[in-house]
């Protein structure tokens, strides 16, 4: 095995696939990255047996071959090489990769490529989604998935295809995020799957501006979904079990509606969160209708700490309906406001004991529901 690649391309490829390397692998080879050279390309692959990532980069291949090298050692070394050509040659007798870049020479001992698990690549695209749309959908759902394993199914993101609509949803028992989009495919029969949120987050992280489209290979005989980017394939095992029916908890009407500038509300919540940390992250929201026709309404965001003080932020808002005094986990508000790109956001509620709804203004393809916290006078 002998080839040459650019340091920048190799470093980028290693950073992509390294996310699939297990920090505490059961098998030594799972701490390694597979390097396979053939047909003027270098293939980098990593897997933790639940998720696999393969990345292809251009290379000048003098002699094809394959080897697995320790992921951290290789990544750290390449990241610190000068930005020029990197020459790699494999000594098959000692399974040692000789790496040369400028005046730097390094040797890394590896493990035979035959010991590396089979990593799925390729496959037919059952669905194609614009890369920017899929990236945004992932960002607007993965954060609301459960972090603990008490209900394993909730640690995943529910993905549903029906007709020409793709729906992604996540929930942790305290909040729910639902995002939909139209797709070119048409599913006569509904199809659903649940992808681990941490794996789907990696898909979103890897999608770049170059990925105009992302192909999805749906699971057939095996319990695996694949995402195909321009130069990257990602496969993920699916979670088993039935995802809860979340449609019933989405309010269909409201008694109070408020429209605010997203950035203003986000900053007010971030300031309140500094003090709310000492109070189970409880942030108080006061909504006050306008005092007279033609005047703006008012929203007050309050974070309080018995020991450290408090912060109160007041925002002008377009308010319809009743006055409201409600409390939420302020971090949940911050999480959803960070993934809303629209200038203004809509907040709706039926009262202090009912779920609150947040969505971008003039859009019905994204909705976020947050359960309230108890309000102490």
Structural features:
single chain; 377 residues; alpha+beta; DNA Polymerase III, Chain A, domain 2; 3 domains; 10-stranded antiparallel β-sheet; 8-stranded antiparallel β-sheet; elongated
Describe the SSE topology.
Layout: E1 2-6, H1 7-17, E2 32-38, E3 41-47, E4 51-58, E5 60-63, E6 65-70, H2 71-79, E7 85-91, E8 96-101, E9 104-109, E10 127-130, H3 131-139, E11 156-171, E12 175-196, H4 197-206, E13 213-217, E14 224-228, E15 232-237, E16 256-261, H5 262-276, E17 282-288, E18 297-305, E19 309-321, E20 324-329, H6 330-338, E21 344-349, E22 356-360, E23 366-370
Antiparallel strand pairs: 1-5, 1-7, 2-3, 2-6, 3-4, 4-15, 7-8, 8-9, 10-13, 11-12, 12-23, 13-14, 14-15, 16-19, 16-21, 17-18, 17-20, 18-19, 21-22, 22-23
Overall SS class:
alpha+beta
Number of helical stretches of at least 4 residues: 6
Low-confidence stretches: none
Helix content: 10-25%
Under the CATH scheme, which architecture of the largest domain would be assigned? Roll
Q: Going by CATH, what is the homologous superfamily of the largest domain? A: DNA Polymerase III, subunit A, domain 2
Tally of discrete structural domains: 3
Radius of gyration: 25 Å
What is the CATH C-level name of the largest domain?
Alpha Beta
Order of helices and strands: EHEEEEEHEEEEHEEHEEEEHEEEEHEEE
First and last CA, distance: 72 Å
Characterize the largest beta sheet: strand count, sense, and whether it forms a barrel: 10 strands, antiparallel
Strand content: over 45%
Overall mean pLDDT stands at 94
CATH topology of the largest domain: DNA Polymerase III, Chain A, domain 2
Instruction: Give me the oligomer status.
Output: single chain
